[in-house]
Amino acid sequence: MEKKYVAPPYRIKMVEPIKMTTKEERIEKLKNAGYNPFSLRSEDVYIDLLTDSGTGAMSQFQWGALMQGDEAYAGSRSFFRFEGVVKDITNYQYVIPAHQGRGAEQVVLPQLITKKGMYFFSNMHFDTTRAHVELAGGRAVDVVIDECFDTVNFHPFKGNFDIEKLEKEIIEKGPENIAGIIMTITNNSAGGQPVSMENLRTVKEIAVKYNIKTIIDGARYAENAFFIKEREEGYQNKSIKEIAHEMFSYADILLMSAKKDGLVNMGGIIAIKDDFDLYQKCRTYIVPMEGFPTYGGLAGRDLEALAVGLEEALDEDYLRHRIDQARYLGDKLIAGGVPIQYPVGGHAVFVDCKKICPHIPFNEFPAQAVCNEVYIEAGVRAVEVGSFLLGRNPDTLENLESQLEFMRLTIPRRTYTYAHLDVVADAVISVYNRRETLVGLDFEYEPPVLRHFTARLKPIK
Ligand code: F0G
């Protein structure tokens, strides 16, 4: 039987034209961009799957809410509306806005590192989270299950913590040296893979046993809740909000990039369950970093749009279609023989480029080579998540080898149609079919930190 995919639960009221380019033009544009799609102008991209962060479409209700922003510096009405929605979704007592996810991270994470060299454990730290742990003098350790690195076989919750490893690490490093446990839901870096409720519950039990704080990195928490409803025994008849309540009950702090499941173009959230002392510290520290605690780097109108977006992201019709779009693209690629992280996660399809280009070594960036070809093929912009992104060992300056070499095809929310995804699938399959002709890349310019954003590369002839 042919698989069915849910049609969009919305119709289109406003359109944004996108430019078609020729292959010859794209070859030239990519060369000028130093073979790094981050340096392309978005105008020269036909379908932009660089990220799902802040790139989605707002609803008419969000655009309407924008007009109601209260731009008072302190005590804005828009803040209280936003605060009410966050409290309702999390059941937490204290809420502070931030300009985006990393703004929330830079305020909260340093408060938890009370002495140098303390550890954070996570299923997988997102790049900026890791950066803020390290900038604050801490160390970030990932303890995800091994199944996460096997892209072929099905596992319903590839984002899960390896519980045994987590407890072993806590005992080894000493509970007094652990600053916190970060639950990244969904696990972005390995495919938008969900974490099960049972896993979150067990992590919380361990955290309580050793008196360690738990933090949810909830950029895509609603997508995670949807997967739990779909795949975990006992959750089929619960609402997304009920599932969210239970997930948040297993953490003490929520850090969230609202550019994902907040359905806005800019925004971040700090929410704290009940630790008043920590809340006071964050309230004080946010002033010089992000702004007064009732605006935290956002305009009143941003807070209004976010309050509405947070509610809309809980809608099951919305979530089903959202997850189906990723699934649709994944299924098409699988049918074309393209190896991907399976099952497909919530926000993107992760293409396994180690398998596509075994002839390109990790330090010539196989996934970046595939991304570049996909752009040339059809004007589709994807992003590398592999050794190019990973960078170098700070001590030896050797290139680090990533366990996985992914091209991430990230799907913005409510933005592209299934027809766009057909274009993407055709382009990737056609590149896959001439995979032997792809060549590795070398640096023309390598920045000292976060090199993937601004590096210039050249193909190895
Ligand atoms: N945590 C996760 C899991 C993320 O995916 C991101 C951002 C952040 C934190 C930081 O949030 O961008 O608002 O400061 N991910 C984007 C991406 C950038 O493309 O995956 P931010």
Can you walk me through this structure?
With 461 residues, the protein is of the alpha/beta class. The chain has two domains: 23-52 and 315-459, Alpha-Beta Complex (Aspartate Aminotransferase, domain 1), CATH 3.90.1150.10; 61-312, Type I PLP-dependent aspartate aminotransferase-like (Major domain) (Aspartate Aminotransferase, domain 2, 3-Layer(aba) Sandwich), CATH 3.40.640.10. Helix content is 40%, strand content 13%. The strands form four sheets. Strands 2-8-7-6-5-3-4 form a seven-stranded mixed sheet, with helices on both faces. A three-stranded antiparallel sheet has the order 9-12-11. The chain has a two-stranded parallel ribbon with strand order 1-10. Helix 4 packs across helix 10 and helix 14 (366-378) packs across helix 16 (418-433). The N and C termini lie far apart (46 Å). The relative contact order is 0.16. The mean pLDDT is 97. Ligand F0G binds at residues 51, 53, 100-102, 126, 128-129, 184, 188, 217, 219, 257, 259, 268. Ligand F0G binds next to helix 4 and helix 5.
